[in-house]
TrEMBL record:
PANTHER family recorded: B3GNT1, BETA-1,3-N-ACETYLGUCOSAMINYLTRANSFERASE 1, HOMOLOG, I-BETA-1,3-N-ACETYLGLUCOSAMINYLTRANSFERASE
Keyword Signal attached: yes
Top-level taxon: Eukaryota
Signal peptide: 1-26
Name of the protein described by the UniProt record: Glycosyltransferase family 92 protein
Organism field: Panagrolaimus davidi
Keywords noted in UniProt: Signal
Length: 420
């Protein structure tokens, strides 16, 4: 299913990569016959293509590398927007699946591209140990049509010094790829099995920065903010677009997309019926049912099933109440809605947006007919990070967040939303 004709790979790979990076003129992409083989890597493509024209011709062609530092967060990042840019035109009125991860998690993008039939905007955190994985991701991104068409990739990294420069990425991409790392096909699983996505870092991760980068780079009117390990049900993008037809700048509606987890000894549930059957067998549950239900449970599940399973109903939104400041539902919001407050690490990061939306007077709804699932039922918490350190960060940034909210939305709104 993932395989693509070699000719396709070669021409798209050569033409698109250079077009995206904006390094060269587009009429002469130097696609010599050897480019059509898989034994070609990004650096050699760069070399083959007249490095002398490295200065971009127009503003628009210039790599958009900026320094990113919001909400006085102690962390600064460099961001290269649209490092890969979705080739397929898309309506402004569409839903971008905005997701994020450190570079090793980029393997999940390919499943999204097959199942989410709309834009995908992904922010990937790269460090110097992650370049082999980045090259692998870029290779697969180019050789799968769905991914090339839909996925815009924004690279995020910590500045080595005070400046943010595209050379951090470009220099690394020019390093030759270790031949033993190179697999002569476009099969994602083969690359995963070979360990090419085995990248991990013990640096603290700042999810809200990555979420916001993905939203900023989306370029569509609606944003579905999702964790990268989620998988979406069949036709989710079309269903959700229909359900959210009344969500606009004025309406101040946040839309919850239900999340589930299931026992991987069973087939993955891509339809509501399959999900329902697994839930009845106690092999699927609302996300983090055993581990952190309070953060994820969304009221009205029996009614949601009844409605969504009924063949004569159409996608719609059900009103629900905001739950609490530790509630972290998966949301679709309008592009004009607030972004996640930055500076949190892996604790209380995700609930910052729902809480701010409550303070800002948004109402909450749940979309029928579509959902996402996580592979595996999580029983225990595990973290490679220091829980003490991330709790300390959450307390510290929480104080800043509170002051910001009180100034922005007034303290009266605490009555409805409770305290942070
Ligand atoms: C960021 O710092 C500036 C200057 O110190 C201050 O005016 C502003 O309120 C701070 N913003 C936040 C979100 O704390
Ligand atoms: C914090 O960041 C959000 C999202 O970028 C932005 O909307 C908001 O204005 C910022 N607030 C402050 C005080 O910096
Ligand atoms: C691309 O996605 C569509 C559904 O959106 C699917 O039917 C098709 O098989 C996918 N193509 C590939 C090459 O995966
Ligand atoms: C900062 O990085 C730039 C670009 O990589 C480099 O030219 C410059 O020498 C560096 N400065 C310091 C102080 O390391
Ligand atoms: C390529 O990888 C192999 C196995 O990890 C290693 O032994 C070899 O030294 C690497 N070669 C280069 C040029 O990095
Ligand atoms: C990659 O990681 C997986 C899971 O942690 C491990 O089983 C596998 O041996 C690793 N592969 C390589 C080549 O390091
Ligand atoms: C990225 O590309 C999209 C179109 O695909 C565009 O709407 C958006 O403005 C671009 N983002 C940035 C930050 O350049
Ligand atoms: C998805 O949409 C297609 C085309 O509209 C339809 O044929 C198919 O039955 C739908 N699948 C599900 C699970 O809703
Ligand atoms: C998943 O299903 C298998 C097979 O029925 C069972 O042995 C296992 O305990 C289940 N796992 C969980 C987490 O429920
Ligand atoms: C299915 O929906 C239709 C239309 O809303 C309704 O009339 C019917 O009672 C529903 N059927 C069931 C079994 O809920
Ligand atoms: C889960 O945590 C409990 C208590 O911390 C421990 O006894 C148990 O062995 C853990 N289970 C797994 C599957 O890690």
């Amino acid at each position: 299913m993932f395989r693509f004709p070699t000719v396709f790979f070669g021409s798209v790979f050569a033409a698109c990569l250079l077009l995206f990076i904006g390094l060269t003129d587009r009429t002469n992409d130097g696609a010599s016959p050897n480019v059509l083989s898989f034994d070609v890597d990004i650096p050699s493509l760069l070399h083959n293509n007249k490095k002398k024209s490295i200065s971009p011709k127009t503003e628009e062609d210039a790599p958009k590398v900026i320094t990113w530092n919001r909400n006085n967060s102690t962390d600064k990042f460099c961001v290269w927007f649209n490092f890969t840019k979705a080739t397929k035109e898309s309506d402004f009125r569409s839903i971008s699946l905005c997701t994020h991860g450190s570079i090793g998690y980029s393997k999940f993008v390919f499943d999204h591209a097959e199942n989410w039939d709309d834009r995908i905007s992904v922010a990937l955190l790269v460090d110097s140990a992650g370049f082999t994985t980045l090259k692998t991701y870029l290779k697969l991104h180019k050789c799968m049509e769905n991914t090339t068409e839909k996925v815009s990739t924004h690279l995020v990294w910590k500045p080595e010094n005070e400046t943010c420069s595209s050379s951090f990425i470009l220099d690394a991409l020019e390093e030759p790829l270790n031949a033993t790392d190179f697999i002569d096909n476009c099969n994602v699983d083969d690359h995963i099995d070979a360990g090419l996505f085995n990248h991990s870092t013990t640096d603290l991760y700042y999810p809200n920065t990555l979420r916001n980068v993905a939203r900023e780079g989306a370029g569509t009117e609606l944003h579905l903010i999702a964790d990268i390990e989620n998988h979406f049900s069949f036709n989710a993008s079309e269903i959700l677009l229909e359900a959210t037809k009344d969500v606009d700048k004025k309406s101040k509606i946040a839309v919850v997309v239900r999340r589930f987890e299931y026992n991987t000894s069973f087939d993955e549930p891509r339809t509501v019926k399959e999900l329902y059957d697994l839930c009845r067998m106690h092999e699927a549950y609302q996300f983090h049912r055993f581990f952190y239900a309070i953060g994820h449970s969304v009221p009205g599940l029996p009614h949601w099933f009844r409605y969504s399973l009924n063949a004569s109903t159409t996608p719609t939104l059900f009103s629900i109440n905001y739950r609490s400041s530790i509630w972290e539902p998966q949301l679709i919001v309008h592009a004009s809605a607030p972004y996640h407050f930055e500076g949190f690490s892996m604790k209380r990061d995700q609930c910052a947006l729902p809480y701010e939306l409550c303070r800002a007077g948004y109402s909450f709804t749940v979309a029928s007919h579509a959902f996402s699932f996580h592979k595996g039922i999580k029983i225990n918490s595990s973290s490679k990070y220091s829980l003490f350190e991330i709790a300390k960060i959450a307390r510290k940034i929480g104080n800043v967040f509170r002051q910001y909210l009180d100034a922005e939305y007034g303290i009266e709104t605490i009555k409805t939303c409770k305290k942070w």
